[in-house]
């Protein structure tokens, strides 16, 4: 019998885990365990230029130190290009993906000509230049043709959410100009192929959800539930990351690291063993977040 709940933790191996990434790992593990489900680990290494050699194995070792063991062998996105290509071919044949010859400068100039300022924290909203053809440009990337309408979903922590992807993002990239697969396509294909039913991840990724729902619908794939966890902030008030001084997670004392992550999630500190702490937090989590209604 198939398990009703399947969750995952999907780190990018751009370096070791830090305090912020452990919060997402612990939350996703607890959510799966609290509901009798399976928990998987996926190494999201499609952006090869940013990956650090050996970081994937280090991440898996850090997780194991903290007692966070997946229920199947980890999966590497870099081995799955054929699946992503098949999805892109499906979208292209349905008229939902098209080649784009625009550079970033082209997009900036097109927006300036229309008198449209940058939106969404500086991200450029694609103006649809290549929707009707390349207009003499060489193809660079592949984009997803977004249909009009507001996407609505309910986040288990943040509540009711909505986004007009066409107005706020525009047609977004599926395969980049350098030939690498974009995050949005890879994560949607992998979540469906792995049977993920609940996505538990950091709040900084909540903005991606509407785009992923668009893709799920276009590819006739199920939409999982979503829960976006609180972020750990750096000294500059921004999300903790390697760019703003996040230190590698020290798992020589795993309970101390886990207690810090648990505090961010609103869970009580525990002074016993790692196994005892994880068991206690499962009970607390079950009382707080119950996607199955049981």
From TrEMBL:
<comment type="similarity">
    <text>Belongs to the class-I aminoacyl-tRNA synthetase family. GluQ subfamily.</text>
</comment>
<feature type="binding site">
    <location>
        <position position="126"/>
    </location>
    <ligand>
        <name>Zn(2+)</name>
    </ligand>
</feature>
<keyword id="KW-0436">Ligase</keyword>
<feature type="binding site">
    <location>
        <position position="102"/>
    </location>
    <ligand>
        <name>Zn(2+)</name>
    </ligand>
</feature>
<feature type="short sequence motif" description="'HIGH' region">
    <location>
        <begin position="11"/>
        <end position="21"/>
    </location>
</feature>
<feature type="short sequence motif" description="'KMSKS' region">
    <location>
        <begin position="239"/>
        <end position="243"/>
    </location>
</feature>
<feature type="binding site">
    <location>
        <begin position="8"/>
        <end position="12"/>
    </location>
    <ligand>
        <name>L-glutamate</name>
    </ligand>
</feature>
<dbReference type="GO" id="GO:0006424">
    <property type="term" value="P:glutamyl-tRNA aminoacylation"/>
</dbReference>
<feature type="binding site">
    <location>
        <position position="130"/>
    </location>
    <ligand>
        <name>Zn(2+)</name>
    </ligand>
</feature>
<dbReference type="InterPro" id="IPR022380">
    <property type="entry name" value="Glu-Q_tRNA(Asp)_Synthase"/>
</dbReference>
<feature type="binding site">
    <location>
        <position position="242"/>
    </location>
    <ligand>
        <name>ATP</name>
    </ligand>
</feature>
<dbReference type="GO" id="GO:0005829">
    <property type="term" value="C:cytosol"/>
</dbReference>
<keyword id="KW-0648">Protein biosynthesis</keyword>
<comment type="function">
    <text>Catalyzes the tRNA-independent activation of glutamate in presence of ATP and the subsequent transfer of glutamate onto a tRNA(Asp). Glutamate is transferred on the 2-amino-5-(4,5-dihydroxy-2-cyclopenten-1-yl) moiety of the queuosine in the wobble position of the QUC anticodon.</text>
</comment>
<feature type="binding site">
    <location>
        <position position="201"/>
    </location>
    <ligand>
        <name>L-glutamate</name>
    </ligand>
</feature>
<keyword id="KW-0030">Aminoacyl-tRNA synthetase</keyword>
<keyword id="KW-0479">Metal-binding</keyword>
<dbReference type="GO" id="GO:0004818">
    <property type="term" value="F:glutamate-tRNA ligase activity"/>
</dbReference>
<dbReference type="Pfam" id="PF00749">
    <property type="entry name" value="tRNA-synt_1c"/>
</dbReference>
<feature type="binding site">
    <location>
        <position position="44"/>
    </location>
    <ligand>
        <name>L-glutamate</name>
    </ligand>
</feature>
<dbReference type="GO" id="GO:0006400">
    <property type="term" value="P:tRNA modification"/>
</dbReference>
<dbReference type="InterPro" id="IPR000924">
    <property type="entry name" value="Glu/Gln-tRNA-synth"/>
</dbReference>
<keyword id="KW-0862">Zinc</keyword>
<dbReference type="InterPro" id="IPR049940">
    <property type="entry name" value="GluQ/Sye"/>
</dbReference>
<dbReference type="InterPro" id="IPR020058">
    <property type="entry name" value="Glu/Gln-tRNA-synth_Ib_cat-dom"/>
</dbReference>
<dbReference type="InterPro" id="IPR014729">
    <property type="entry name" value="Rossmann-like_a/b/a_fold"/>
</dbReference>
<feature type="binding site">
    <location>
        <position position="100"/>
    </location>
    <ligand>
        <name>Zn(2+)</name>
    </ligand>
</feature>
<feature type="binding site">
    <location>
        <position position="183"/>
    </location>
    <ligand>
        <name>L-glutamate</name>
    </ligand>
</feature>
<dbReference type="GO" id="GO:0008270">
    <property type="term" value="F:zinc ion binding"/>
</dbReference>
<keyword id="KW-0547">Nucleotide-binding</keyword>
<feature type="domain" description="Glutamyl/glutaminyl-tRNA synthetase class Ib catalytic">
    <location>
        <begin position="8"/>
        <end position="248"/>
    </location>
</feature>
<keyword id="KW-0067">ATP-binding</keyword>
<protein>
    <recommendedName>
        <fullName>Glutamyl-Q tRNA(Asp) synthetase</fullName>
        <ecNumber>6.1.1.-</ecNumber>
    </recommendedName>
</protein>
<dbReference type="GO" id="GO:0005524">
    <property type="term" value="F:ATP binding"/>
</dbReference>
């Amino acid at each position: 019998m198939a398990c009703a709940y399947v969750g995952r933790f999907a780190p990018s191996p751009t370096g070791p885990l830090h305090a912020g990434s452990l919060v997402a790992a612990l939350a996703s593990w607890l959510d799966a365990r609290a509901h009798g489900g399976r928990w998987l680990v996926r190494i999201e290494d499609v952006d090869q230029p940013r990956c650090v050699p050996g970081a994937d194995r280090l991440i898996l070792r850090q997780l194991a130190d903290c007692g966070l063991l997946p229920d199947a062998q980890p999966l590497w996105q870099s081995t799955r290009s054929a699946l992503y290509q098949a999805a892109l071919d499906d979208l292209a044949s349905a008229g939902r993906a098209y080649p784009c010859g625009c550079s970033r400068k082209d997009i900036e100039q097109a927006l300036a000509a229309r008198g449209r300022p940058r939106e969404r924290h500086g991200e450029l909203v694609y103006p649809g230049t290549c929707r009707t053809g390349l207009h003499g440009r060489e193809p660079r990337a592949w984009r997803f043709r977004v249909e009009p309408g507001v996407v609505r979903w309910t986040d288990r922590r943040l509540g009711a959410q909505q986004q007009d992807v066409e107005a706020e993002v525009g047609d977004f990239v599926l395969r980049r100009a350098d030939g690498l697969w974009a995050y949005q396509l890879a994560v949607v294909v992998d979540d469906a192929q792995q049977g993920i039913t609940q996505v538990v991840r950091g709040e900084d990724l909540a903005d991606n959800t509407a785009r992923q729902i668009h893709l799920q619908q276009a590819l006739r794939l199920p939409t999982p539930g979503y829960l976006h966890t609180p972020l750990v902030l750096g000294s500059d008030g921004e999300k903790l990351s390697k760019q703003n001084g996040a230190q590698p997670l020290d798992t020589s004392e795993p309970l101390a690291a886990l207690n810090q992550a648990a505090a961010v999630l609103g869970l009580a500190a525990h002074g016993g063993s790692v196994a005892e702490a994880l068991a206690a937090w499962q009970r607390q989590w079950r009382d707080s977040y119950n996607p199955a209604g049981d």
